[in-house]
Amino acid sequence: MNQSMGMNRGALLLGAAALLALAVSGCSTGGIYGMARDERTVGTMLDDNALATKIKADMLTDKSISSLDISVYVYKGAVFLVGVTTDPKEGKRAEEIAHHNARGKGVDVYFLDKRNESGASMTDDAVITSKIKARMIAEKNFESTRVEVKTLQGEAILLGLVADEEAKRKAISLAQSVSGVKKVISFLVMD
Hey, which CATH number is domain 119-190, 3.30.1340.30, 3.40.605.10, 2.30.29.30, 2.60.120.260? Predict the structure, then answer.
């Protein structure tokens, strides 16, 4: 009985470690819950995660990029870099790395100047993101788990997969309706 409990505990720990690794990988394609609603094939999701991981790894090992404030998102092979940088050269180098790894597929970037960020703005950004996600969750007939929201300096950036143009407009409208949002940037991809 003791050996059986040890094996069960080991399997449970292994499963928890795998889920934790997926959750904190930093290579976002919608998170664990979002995967359940993701219409991409398993192969496409794996390709997207592998590409995001490769780009992030190359950015981390590049000495000319000191910022860890750049997030990498990949949906159906399209790459999106979003974040803040202290030097435009840093953002340019991150974009070059993404283009090199994307091999001819699209790369979109949205960088803001880190020097315009304050502790208060970072807190406000977290509140804005939470309010946008809450509105999306509350909206009937809207698949909120398929849309990532990242807020930087009051600007809401929407990423992820949507079914059609109507869903894209709805996501943008919901984000715009939140107080404190200065601008909405959409990098939503049609599924």
Answer: 3.30.1340.30
